[in-house]
Amino acid sequence: MKDNAWLAALTGELRRHGVGPDLTGHVVAEAATHLAESGESPLRVFGPPEVYARAVADSLGGPDVRPPRRHPGPVRLAARGITKRYRGQTVLDRIDLTVRAGQIAAVVGANGAGKSTFLRICAGLLSPDAGTVQVHGALGYCPQDGGTAEFLDPDEHFVLIGAGRGLGRATARRAGRAGAAALDWTPPRTQARHLSGGTRQKLNLVLARLGEPDVLLLDEPYQGFDRGTYLDFWHEVWRWRDAGKAIVVVTHLLNQLDRVDIVLDLTASQERTA
Amino acid sequence: MNQERRAQWLRGVLDLCVLALLSRGESYGYELSQALRTYGLGTVQGGTLYPVLLRLQRAGLLTAHWREGETGPARKYYRISPAGSAALHAAVIDWSAFTASVGAILSEEPKR
After folding, report:
1. CATH code at position A101
2. What was the ipTM of the complex prediction?
3. Most exposed residue of A126, A190, A198, A255, measured as fewest CB within 10 angstroms of its CB?
4. Quick check: A33 and B29 CB within 8 A?
Protein backbone atom coordinates (compact mmCIF):
# COMPACT_ATOMS: atom_id res chain seq x y z
CA MET A 1 0.00 0.00 0.00
CA LYS A 2 2.88 2.30 0.84
CA ASP A 3 4.44 1.34 -2.48
CA ASN A 4 1.29 2.38 -4.31
CA ALA A 5 1.29 5.83 -2.75
CA TRP A 6 4.94 6.26 -3.71
CA LEU A 7 4.30 5.03 -7.26
CA ALA A 8 1.33 7.39 -7.62
CA ALA A 9 3.48 10.29 -6.45
CA LEU A 10 6.20 9.24 -8.91
CA THR A 11 3.67 9.28 -11.75
CA GLY A 12 2.73 12.85 -10.92
CA GLU A 13 6.34 13.96 -10.54
CA LEU A 14 7.35 12.45 -13.89
CA ARG A 15 4.54 14.38 -15.55
CA ARG A 16 5.73 17.55 -13.85
CA HIS A 17 9.21 16.95 -15.20
CA GLY A 18 7.96 16.73 -18.76
CA VAL A 19 8.24 12.96 -19.13
CA GLY A 20 5.64 11.76 -21.64
CA PRO A 21 2.81 9.38 -20.68
CA ASP A 22 4.27 6.34 -22.45
CA LEU A 23 7.68 6.57 -20.86
CA THR A 24 6.11 7.41 -17.49
CA GLY A 25 4.18 4.14 -17.73
CA HIS A 26 7.38 2.20 -18.39
CA VAL A 27 9.36 3.88 -15.62
CA VAL A 28 6.61 3.40 -13.03
CA ALA A 29 5.97 -0.23 -14.03
CA GLU A 30 9.69 -0.99 -13.90
CA ALA A 31 9.96 0.56 -10.44
CA ALA A 32 6.92 -1.43 -9.29
CA THR A 33 8.52 -4.65 -10.55
CA HIS A 34 11.76 -3.88 -8.75
CA LEU A 35 9.93 -3.16 -5.49
CA ALA A 36 7.90 -6.35 -5.75
CA GLU A 37 11.02 -8.45 -6.37
CA SER A 38 13.32 -6.83 -3.85
CA GLY A 39 10.71 -6.36 -1.14
CA GLU A 40 12.51 -3.16 -0.13
CA SER A 41 11.00 0.21 0.65
CA PRO A 42 10.68 2.59 -2.32
CA LEU A 43 12.33 5.42 -0.40
CA ARG A 44 15.37 3.24 0.21
CA VAL A 45 15.64 1.96 -3.36
CA PHE A 46 14.68 5.05 -5.33
CA GLY A 47 14.59 7.94 -2.86
CA PRO A 48 11.82 10.56 -2.77
CA PRO A 49 9.56 10.54 -5.88
CA GLU A 50 10.59 14.06 -6.94
CA VAL A 51 14.28 13.21 -6.72
CA TYR A 52 13.91 10.01 -8.75
CA ALA A 53 11.69 11.77 -11.31
CA ARG A 54 14.35 14.42 -11.76
CA ALA A 55 17.05 11.77 -12.22
CA VAL A 56 14.90 10.11 -14.89
CA ALA A 57 14.25 13.43 -16.63
CA ASP A 58 17.96 14.29 -16.49
CA SER A 59 18.89 10.95 -18.03
CA LEU A 60 16.69 11.81 -21.00
CA GLY A 61 18.77 14.92 -21.65
CA GLY A 62 15.83 17.27 -21.68
CA PRO A 63 12.05 17.17 -21.90
CA ASP A 64 10.72 14.00 -23.47
CA VAL A 65 7.95 15.65 -25.40
CA ARG A 66 7.96 19.18 -26.61
CA PRO A 67 4.59 20.71 -27.31
CA PRO A 68 3.99 20.59 -31.04
CA ARG A 69 4.75 23.87 -32.76
CA ARG A 70 1.55 25.00 -34.35
CA HIS A 71 0.94 27.76 -36.78
CA PRO A 72 0.15 30.80 -34.69
CA GLY A 73 -3.33 32.23 -35.12
CA PRO A 74 -4.55 35.82 -35.46
CA VAL A 75 -2.91 38.70 -33.62
CA ARG A 76 -4.28 38.97 -30.06
CA LEU A 77 -2.03 41.64 -28.63
CA ALA A 78 -0.27 44.40 -30.57
CA ALA A 79 1.81 46.93 -28.62
CA ARG A 80 3.39 49.58 -30.84
CA GLY A 81 6.02 52.15 -29.90
CA ILE A 82 5.30 51.97 -26.18
CA THR A 83 7.19 54.72 -24.38
CA LYS A 84 7.02 55.54 -20.70
CA ARG A 85 8.95 58.10 -18.71
CA TYR A 86 9.14 58.46 -14.93
CA ARG A 87 10.60 61.68 -13.52
CA GLY A 88 12.53 62.42 -16.67
CA GLN A 89 13.84 58.85 -16.88
CA THR A 90 12.83 56.89 -19.97
CA VAL A 91 11.79 53.47 -18.64
CA LEU A 92 10.36 52.15 -21.89
CA ASP A 93 11.55 53.44 -25.24
CA ARG A 94 9.45 52.63 -28.30
CA ILE A 95 8.78 48.99 -27.39
CA ASP A 96 6.93 46.79 -29.89
CA LEU A 97 5.40 43.42 -29.13
CA THR A 98 3.00 41.35 -31.21
CA VAL A 99 1.60 38.14 -29.78
CA ARG A 100 -0.66 35.83 -31.77
CA ALA A 101 -3.08 33.16 -30.63
CA GLY A 102 -1.04 30.08 -29.65
CA GLN A 103 2.11 31.99 -28.75
CA ILE A 104 3.99 32.62 -25.51
CA ALA A 105 6.02 35.80 -25.18
CA ALA A 106 8.52 36.10 -22.34
CA VAL A 107 9.35 39.62 -21.15
CA VAL A 108 12.79 39.61 -19.57
CA GLY A 109 15.23 42.19 -18.30
CA ALA A 110 17.02 43.34 -15.19
CA ASN A 111 15.22 44.74 -12.16
CA GLY A 112 13.90 48.18 -13.00
CA ALA A 113 13.97 47.53 -16.75
CA GLY A 114 10.24 48.25 -16.87
CA LYS A 115 8.87 44.73 -17.21
CA SER A 116 5.92 45.22 -14.87
CA THR A 117 5.31 48.72 -16.23
CA PHE A 118 5.11 47.32 -19.75
CA LEU A 119 2.68 44.62 -18.66
CA ARG A 120 0.48 47.11 -16.80
CA ILE A 121 0.35 49.25 -19.93
CA CYS A 122 -0.65 46.19 -21.97
CA ALA A 123 -3.36 45.45 -19.38
CA GLY A 124 -4.70 49.00 -19.69
CA LEU A 125 -3.94 49.80 -16.05
CA LEU A 126 -1.39 52.45 -16.95
CA SER A 127 -1.23 54.93 -19.83
CA PRO A 128 1.92 55.11 -21.95
CA ASP A 129 3.44 58.49 -22.83
CA ALA A 130 3.46 57.34 -26.42
CA GLY A 131 2.37 54.27 -28.33
CA THR A 132 -0.73 52.12 -28.63
CA VAL A 133 -1.93 48.76 -27.37
CA GLN A 134 -4.55 46.75 -29.21
CA VAL A 135 -6.08 43.69 -27.58
CA HIS A 136 -8.32 41.39 -29.62
CA GLY A 137 -10.41 39.29 -27.26
CA ALA A 138 -10.92 39.01 -23.51
CA LEU A 139 -7.98 39.75 -21.26
CA GLY A 140 -6.77 38.16 -18.03
CA TYR A 141 -4.08 39.79 -15.90
CA CYS A 142 -2.16 38.28 -13.02
CA PRO A 143 -0.27 40.91 -11.01
CA GLN A 144 3.02 40.29 -9.26
CA ASP A 145 1.36 40.78 -5.89
CA GLY A 146 -1.88 42.17 -4.57
CA GLY A 147 -4.94 41.35 -6.62
CA THR A 148 -6.64 39.42 -3.86
CA ALA A 149 -9.18 40.72 -1.37
CA GLU A 150 -8.01 40.20 2.20
CA PHE A 151 -11.34 39.21 3.71
CA LEU A 152 -12.61 36.88 0.99
CA ASP A 153 -11.85 33.18 0.79
CA PRO A 154 -10.82 31.59 -2.55
CA ASP A 155 -14.36 30.44 -3.46
CA GLU A 156 -15.67 33.97 -2.89
CA HIS A 157 -12.91 35.29 -5.14
CA PHE A 158 -13.95 32.86 -7.87
CA VAL A 159 -17.56 34.02 -7.63
CA LEU A 160 -16.68 37.72 -7.53
CA ILE A 161 -14.19 37.72 -10.41
CA GLY A 162 -16.29 35.18 -12.32
CA ALA A 163 -19.30 37.51 -12.12
CA GLY A 164 -17.23 40.22 -13.81
CA ARG A 165 -16.60 37.79 -16.65
CA GLY A 166 -20.18 36.66 -17.02
CA LEU A 167 -19.92 33.38 -15.09
CA GLY A 168 -22.64 32.20 -12.72
CA ARG A 169 -21.76 31.35 -9.12
CA ALA A 170 -21.59 27.59 -9.55
CA THR A 171 -19.74 27.81 -12.87
CA ALA A 172 -17.21 30.26 -11.48
CA ARG A 173 -16.59 28.12 -8.41
CA ARG A 174 -16.19 24.99 -10.53
CA ALA A 175 -13.82 26.74 -12.96
CA GLY A 176 -11.79 28.14 -10.07
CA ARG A 177 -11.42 24.79 -8.37
CA ALA A 178 -10.46 23.09 -11.65
CA GLY A 179 -7.78 25.74 -12.24
CA ALA A 180 -6.54 25.26 -8.69
CA ALA A 181 -6.38 21.48 -9.11
CA ALA A 182 -4.12 21.93 -12.16
CA LEU A 183 -1.66 23.62 -9.79
CA ASP A 184 -2.04 20.76 -7.31
CA TRP A 185 -3.87 23.10 -4.95
CA THR A 186 -7.10 22.56 -3.02
CA PRO A 187 -8.45 26.01 -2.11
CA PRO A 188 -9.20 26.14 1.63
CA ARG A 189 -12.10 28.02 3.19
CA THR A 190 -9.67 30.59 4.52
CA GLN A 191 -9.61 34.34 4.02
CA ALA A 192 -6.92 35.47 1.62
CA ARG A 193 -5.08 37.45 4.31
CA HIS A 194 -4.31 34.14 6.09
CA LEU A 195 -2.84 32.49 2.97
CA SER A 196 0.91 32.32 2.32
CA GLY A 197 2.42 34.45 -0.44
CA GLY A 198 2.82 31.46 -2.74
CA THR A 199 -0.76 30.36 -2.18
CA ARG A 200 -2.07 33.87 -2.86
CA GLN A 201 -0.15 33.79 -6.15
CA LYS A 202 -1.86 30.50 -7.04
CA LEU A 203 -5.18 32.21 -6.35
CA ASN A 204 -4.16 35.18 -8.50
CA LEU A 205 -3.20 32.89 -11.34
CA VAL A 206 -6.46 30.96 -11.17
CA LEU A 207 -8.40 34.25 -11.12
CA ALA A 208 -6.58 35.52 -14.21
CA ARG A 209 -7.69 32.38 -16.03
CA LEU A 210 -11.37 32.50 -15.04
CA GLY A 211 -13.63 32.67 -18.06
CA GLU A 212 -10.82 31.46 -20.35
CA PRO A 213 -9.62 34.84 -21.63
CA ASP A 214 -7.90 34.95 -25.04
CA VAL A 215 -4.96 37.01 -23.80
CA LEU A 216 -3.15 36.27 -20.53
CA LEU A 217 -0.73 38.73 -18.99
CA LEU A 218 1.25 37.11 -16.16
CA ASP A 219 3.65 39.16 -14.07
CA GLU A 220 6.11 36.71 -12.46
CA PRO A 221 3.17 34.74 -11.17
CA TYR A 222 5.22 31.92 -9.66
CA GLN A 223 6.88 33.85 -6.81
CA GLY A 224 6.72 31.77 -3.66
CA PHE A 225 5.92 28.59 -5.60
CA ASP A 226 7.87 25.49 -4.65
CA ARG A 227 9.69 23.74 -7.45
CA GLY A 228 6.88 21.29 -8.13
CA THR A 229 4.27 24.01 -8.47
CA TYR A 230 6.66 26.02 -10.63
CA LEU A 231 6.86 23.08 -13.05
CA ASP A 232 3.07 22.67 -12.90
CA PHE A 233 2.77 26.35 -13.77
CA TRP A 234 4.84 26.00 -16.94
CA HIS A 235 2.91 22.91 -17.95
CA GLU A 236 -0.29 24.90 -17.63
CA VAL A 237 1.17 27.74 -19.69
CA TRP A 238 2.14 25.34 -22.47
CA ARG A 239 -1.31 23.77 -22.33
CA TRP A 240 -2.97 27.20 -22.64
CA ARG A 241 -0.71 28.02 -25.55
CA ASP A 242 -1.72 24.78 -27.27
CA ALA A 243 -5.34 25.73 -26.64
CA GLY A 244 -4.75 28.88 -28.72
CA LYS A 245 -4.28 31.47 -25.98
CA ALA A 246 -1.86 34.38 -26.36
CA ILE A 247 0.32 34.58 -23.27
CA VAL A 248 2.77 37.19 -22.04
CA VAL A 249 4.92 36.16 -19.05
CA VAL A 250 7.22 38.51 -17.22
CA THR A 251 10.13 36.47 -15.92
CA HIS A 252 13.67 36.82 -14.71
CA LEU A 253 14.26 33.08 -14.90
CA LEU A 254 15.80 32.32 -18.23
CA ASN A 255 15.81 28.54 -18.17
CA GLN A 256 12.38 28.28 -19.80
CA LEU A 257 13.17 30.58 -22.70
CA ASP A 258 13.82 27.75 -25.15
CA ARG A 259 10.18 26.79 -24.77
CA VAL A 260 8.59 30.15 -25.45
CA ASP A 261 7.94 31.64 -28.86
CA ILE A 262 8.99 35.26 -28.43
CA VAL A 263 11.51 36.88 -26.09
CA LEU A 264 11.27 40.60 -25.43
CA ASP A 265 14.40 41.78 -23.62
CA LEU A 266 13.85 45.17 -22.02
CA THR A 267 17.40 45.43 -20.66
CA ALA A 268 18.68 46.16 -24.15
CA SER A 269 16.20 49.00 -24.68
CA GLN A 270 17.19 50.67 -21.44
CA GLU A 271 20.89 50.40 -22.12
CA ARG A 272 20.27 51.94 -25.52
CA THR A 273 18.81 55.01 -23.90
CA ALA A 274 21.42 55.22 -21.15
CA MET B 1 36.20 0.92 1.36
CA ASN B 2 35.50 4.62 1.73
CA GLN B 3 31.83 4.80 0.68
CA GLU B 4 32.03 8.25 -0.84
CA ARG B 5 35.04 7.40 -2.96
CA ARG B 6 33.47 4.15 -4.10
CA ALA B 7 30.31 5.99 -5.17
CA GLN B 8 32.47 8.52 -7.00
CA TRP B 9 34.38 5.82 -8.88
CA LEU B 10 31.20 3.94 -9.63
CA ARG B 11 29.62 6.98 -11.27
CA GLY B 12 32.35 6.89 -13.90
CA VAL B 13 32.08 3.18 -14.71
CA LEU B 14 28.56 2.04 -13.87
CA ASP B 15 27.39 2.37 -17.47
CA LEU B 16 30.36 0.25 -18.62
CA CYS B 17 29.66 -2.38 -15.95
CA VAL B 18 26.03 -2.53 -17.08
CA LEU B 19 27.06 -2.87 -20.73
CA ALA B 20 29.55 -5.60 -19.82
CA LEU B 21 27.00 -7.57 -17.78
CA LEU B 22 24.47 -7.32 -20.60
CA SER B 23 27.06 -8.41 -23.17
CA ARG B 24 26.81 -11.83 -21.49
CA GLY B 25 23.07 -12.02 -21.98
CA GLU B 26 19.88 -10.06 -21.47
CA SER B 27 18.84 -9.10 -17.97
CA TYR B 28 16.55 -6.78 -15.98
CA GLY B 29 17.09 -4.12 -13.35
CA TYR B 30 16.77 -6.12 -10.17
CA GLU B 31 18.96 -8.94 -11.50
CA LEU B 32 21.59 -6.45 -12.63
CA SER B 33 21.68 -4.82 -9.20
CA GLN B 34 22.25 -8.25 -7.63
CA ALA B 35 24.97 -9.09 -10.13
CA LEU B 36 26.77 -5.84 -9.31
CA ARG B 37 26.60 -6.73 -5.63
CA THR B 38 27.93 -10.23 -6.32
CA TYR B 39 30.95 -8.68 -8.02
CA GLY B 40 31.63 -6.70 -4.86
CA LEU B 41 30.39 -3.27 -5.93
CA GLY B 42 27.97 -3.16 -3.00
CA THR B 43 24.39 -2.00 -3.31
CA VAL B 44 23.65 0.05 -6.39
CA GLN B 45 20.19 1.40 -5.66
CA GLY B 46 17.45 1.51 -8.27
CA GLY B 47 17.49 5.30 -8.13
CA THR B 48 21.01 5.15 -9.57
CA LEU B 49 20.73 2.11 -11.81
CA TYR B 50 17.54 2.76 -13.78
CA PRO B 51 18.45 6.26 -15.00
CA VAL B 52 21.70 4.74 -16.34
CA LEU B 53 19.73 2.02 -18.14
CA LEU B 54 17.40 4.65 -19.54
CA ARG B 55 20.28 6.77 -20.78
CA LEU B 56 21.96 3.79 -22.45
CA GLN B 57 18.66 2.85 -24.05
CA ARG B 58 18.14 6.41 -25.30
CA ALA B 59 21.66 6.41 -26.73
CA GLY B 60 20.83 3.25 -28.67
CA LEU B 61 23.38 1.13 -26.80
CA LEU B 62 20.66 -1.06 -25.28
CA THR B 63 17.32 -2.32 -26.48
CA ALA B 64 14.52 -3.18 -24.09
CA HIS B 65 11.30 -5.14 -24.10
CA TRP B 66 8.74 -6.24 -21.56
CA ARG B 67 8.16 -9.90 -20.87
CA GLU B 68 5.78 -11.65 -18.48
CA GLY B 69 7.60 -13.84 -15.99
CA GLU B 70 6.51 -17.41 -15.22
CA THR B 71 5.84 -16.09 -11.76
CA GLY B 72 5.76 -12.54 -10.52
CA PRO B 73 5.30 -9.30 -12.41
CA ALA B 74 6.31 -8.47 -15.99
CA ARG B 75 9.93 -7.38 -16.29
CA LYS B 76 11.66 -4.97 -18.59
CA TYR B 77 14.54 -6.93 -20.14
CA TYR B 78 17.55 -5.13 -21.55
CA ARG B 79 19.79 -6.40 -24.32
CA ILE B 80 22.99 -4.89 -25.66
CA SER B 81 22.78 -3.54 -29.22
CA PRO B 82 25.54 -3.77 -31.86
CA ALA B 83 26.32 -0.11 -31.14
CA GLY B 84 26.49 -0.98 -27.44
CA SER B 85 28.93 -3.83 -28.10
CA ALA B 86 31.14 -1.52 -30.16
CA ALA B 87 31.05 1.16 -27.43
CA LEU B 88 31.90 -1.42 -24.79
CA HIS B 89 34.77 -2.82 -26.83
CA ALA B 90 36.31 0.64 -27.24
CA ALA B 91 35.76 1.49 -23.57
CA VAL B 92 37.41 -1.73 -22.37
CA ILE B 93 40.62 -0.78 -24.20
CA ASP B 94 40.50 2.76 -22.80
CA TRP B 95 39.80 1.49 -19.30
CA SER B 96 42.79 -0.89 -19.39
CA ALA B 97 45.09 1.91 -20.43
CA PHE B 98 43.61 4.23 -17.78
CA THR B 99 43.86 1.76 -14.89
CA ALA B 100 47.39 0.81 -15.98
CA SER B 101 48.44 4.47 -15.74
CA VAL B 102 46.79 4.96 -12.37
CA GLY B 103 48.24 1.63 -11.17
CA ALA B 104 51.72 2.60 -12.25
CA ILE B 105 51.53 5.89 -10.33
CA LEU B 106 50.03 4.38 -7.20
CA SER B 107 52.31 1.34 -7.02
CA GLU B 108 55.62 3.13 -7.56
CA GLU B 109 57.92 2.83 -4.52
CA PRO B 110 58.46 6.13 -2.75
CA LYS B 111 61.99 7.54 -3.19
CA ARG B 112 64.20 7.47 -0.14
Report:
1. 3.40.50.300
2. 0.83
3. A255
4. yes
